[in-house]
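Reproducibility note. Readers wishing to regenerate the assembly model reported in the main text can use the exact inputs given here. Chain order matters: entities are listed in the order in which they were concatenated for prediction.
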Amino acid sequence: MKVFASFFKKKFFFKKKNQKTFIRCFARNRAAVLGASILAVVLLTVILGPLLYPGSAFKLVGKPLLPPGGAFLLGTDTLGRDVAAEIVHGTRTSMLIGVSATALAVLIGALVGGFAGYYRGWTELVLMRITEFFQTIPAFVLAILVVAILQPSVGSEILAIGLVSWPGIARLVRSEFVSLGGREFVLACTGLGASDTRVIFRHLLPNCASSIIAVGSLLVASSILIESGLAFLGLGDPNVMSWGLLISAGRAVLRSAWWICTFPGIAILLTVLAINLAGDGLNEALNPRLRTA
Amino acid sequence: MRRLRYFGARVLLALPVVFGIIVLNFLLIHLAPGDAASVLAGESGAATPEYMESLRSKFGLDQPFSTQFTHYVEQIGSFNLGYSFRNDAPVSELIIERLVPTALLMLSSFSTALVIGTLLGLIAATGRNTWRDAVISIMTLIAYATPVFWLGLMMVVVFAIRLEWLPTSGFETVGSDDEGWAHMLDIARHLVMPAVTLALFYLALYARVMRASVLDQTGLDYVTTARAKGQTERGIMFGHVLRNALLPVLTMAGVQAGNLIGGSVVVETVFGWPGIGTLAFNALQSRDLNLLLGIFFISACLVVVINLIVELISVFLDPRIEV
Amino acid sequence: MSVVLDIQNLQIALPKGADRPYAVDNLSLQLRAGEVTCLIGESGSGKSLAARAILGLLPAPRVRASGGRMLFGDIDLRAASPETMRAIRGAGIAMIFQEPMTALNPLHTIGRQIDEVLRLHTRLSRAERRTRIIELLADVHLPDPARLLHAYPHQMSGGQRQRAMIAMALALSPKLLIADEPTTALDVTTQAQIIHLIRTLQRERGTAVLFITHDFGVVADIADTVAVLQRGTLVESGPRDAVLNHPQHPYTKALIAAVPRLIPPAARPEPATRVPTILESRKLRKTYGARALFGGRTTTALDGVDIALRTGETLGLVGESGSGKSTLARAVTRLLATDSGEILFNGHDLAPLTRRQLRPYRKRIQMVFQDPFASLDPRQTVLEVIAEGPIIHGTPRAQAHAEARTLLGLVGLDASAGDRYPHEFSGGQRQRIGIARALAMQPEVIVADEPVSALDVSVQAQVLALFADIKARLQLSMIFVTHDLRVALQVCDRIAVMRAGRVVELATAQQVFAAPQHPYTKDLLAAVPGAAWQQAMLERTDA
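Running the prediction on these inputs yields the following structure tokens for the assembly.
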């Protein structure tokens, strides 16, 4: 609303690093706090996992197909492994792949989008056509192909997920660079004789960092989903325990042992939900002007 | 007429995308460690030396890189996607056979997601900060975070195994000799779970986009103008806001078309739906990479077509797009 | 004349966290049939909210009319039911807005949007409505109404869109028309036409008009009665001539004094010897191309422009939007690549230089920008902003910061301002920071691109005074870009009038004012809001 924007300009107009406002804004969003709390539990699991369930995730501990609630909280699987232990060990895999694949996607996306948005012209035209291309083609099928060709492993999963996830970041960085590049402070800096690197690293990147962080955090969630899908199709690293692998293995006994599939799925659901909630909160707190609710 | 020419130009612009997919396919073959022929034949060990040799000569694998490339483009260009040794049939034939079930699945989940999703988004936005909004928002957030294959498995546990309402898997009841309506109904019963499973994520996505889009639009000046004319709130919503708000949803639907195919691979696998997805899963199990590459090529082309259709609809909805 | 709308003690409450509890407090105003009442105020005065409150268009529940009465006939609009309000909106009271592009639905044709008013409030048949719409479009002097019926907003010019808005508002001959800054987004010549149109139609039909504006020139051209709003309080109201010529309240006096006068600077004797040229453009061309693969359209922003800035003078570039004036300013500072032509700085051609070769020249030509919010990096402190240039060019950090503090004093800011961030300052203060940043490089030439057009008049006057002061003290040469001929006449020695990428007239300010040669310059002069009023004032002071 243009009319009363002038009354609020001073308060909300600029996304300055104001930690107090940021924390207050984030804390006011109850859903985001809930998400952050679940996320904290997930991270604790990653750190404390080896202490809770020492040794290999593939260790056989009891009779196969024990229902949950007995000696083993979440029951045992077809080979007699503790499902709870498998989930705890899988947390580490999911988070590792989610975060690394996102880092890769942000790196590729920021490079492509940055070049396109800063140099414009033909560079932009070509790079954005490539970005659109990668956005159009069926990402999941491409990820399947890449992992299948490179042989399933944690590394190939990270590469495949990163390779199909970067277009969103590239589009974001490009549009931020273009809109910031049109802002007069960037022109002013060029007018002072600043080099490209100075303009990019001192002015453009810091001003769009908050958007990248916000979108990147949501990307971690979608990477975890893609990873679980790949593992479900049998493209997970067979030597590393993961949630998708667990569900894939439990599928055969779905009729008799529902718990093997159910609990890892809940773990994925909660983790992804938590990251999305926290990410949305981060987005609102960092970019208050985008607020729609 | 001008629209027709514009559409012609868009089709031309789509050609580089198809070419790009061919390039990508070619690169993927060579990305693999080791001999490209063994990659294509798969590690099944079932490939005979003669077959390996025919692969080598067909893809010109003993020739220089550039020759291999032109050769490859020629092959694909003439719609020759190769031969699947495991299935003992040409790849293109295998895929075309499976096209109908996949199209049926995608179309039904896509339309369900679009219609219900936009409707929910609209309800949430108009009742912003009420219980309706809260319920819809929570539902979409959960649907947004649920792994598709897991949702499918859980539905099987609940609706097929426990309640026995719906069949666990397949396209139709095996051995049934129903015809006409009864046959259709049988297929529909098999379709319900896969379609709902696949639709749920997109339904949530469209609801979120629609909600944000409606809220964006209601803040704009033309809405104030309509109000100043004496238009009712209902008239403003349906006469002005709705069409403007649908445009971002439509764009999103186009962008997500590719992911819909990815999702159907997983869903078909879960429900044993005899479409391209199951074919892909089987190819994966037998490491039949050539078949997998063919599926990737065809599904990417399918997405290009869907995008063209979305673009065509946008042109009719939005007069600002230069024709 | 009869009172159409009687506003009594209107109060509009703002939500918590706003800069004051009430946007408007205790506002009483009578709008009479056949009269134009101008509500004037600076940004944040609450004038637009007051206008919206009448039709119940405030963004409730955050902002709402919390007290007073608004009597339209015997209906109190503040207490009226939603049904009553809907019946009045569009039929009894109509409204037009500042930005016609966003105020029209982009997906509906003009005809359909006007038709909506008729459909809502009348029972005319489709054919009757169509005839009526065509009449209305003809009434607002739109060309070829039958064709425009099917045009979409984006296919029309800004002036045409505003005319269509007026046609829509007057469709049912409302008793009151509320015009919320209807000409602010338009060019001067279009503004003059729209004001004339509103005036004529209002006279013909005896409509009461509430005209919101921030420009006293516009007030002089259209008002019968004037009401001055300062931070939500009505400080003065009365007949136009009384308020304009004999303002009582100090705020009104200050506002009127700050309006740029339509007077040329005192004639300066032409220097005896030929003054050397410091910056010059020769046959400068720049086209913007639509980046489509098939048949992109191009627009020519600069079409072979020759200008020459003499050492020590201020050269004005005046023109409407799309004239190429800002493109020219950015081209001569090499912030924008050109297609062809030369840019001579002290005889050296800058056009072919690479970024690296350009660096030594960057120091010597500096720019001041229009938007005080966009021209400073929100993440730098003021000191960092000002010192960045010297640091890039090798001045040690500590020294650059010390010099920056001194500069703050020169531009009229406190030295302690240096440690704060740009968002803590007002528009005028930010513009001072922008000027300090340019001065830190000790340039020979300053190119100022619309440096005051985003500022309120009172602030505008202060910043213009700062420019004059600095130029005199530091003996700078300056290119001053503006759309406002009044401002140009006040600060420039010579003025280049631009239109569609060409300089149509280049003469001393004196000549442009007294004896304009080109018809377009004459149009521009005639379109200056309040020209007649200022002329009269000049004559009075002469007498």
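We highlight two features of this model. Residues 153 and 183 of chain B are 25 Å apart (CA to CA). Chain B has a mean pLDDT of 83.
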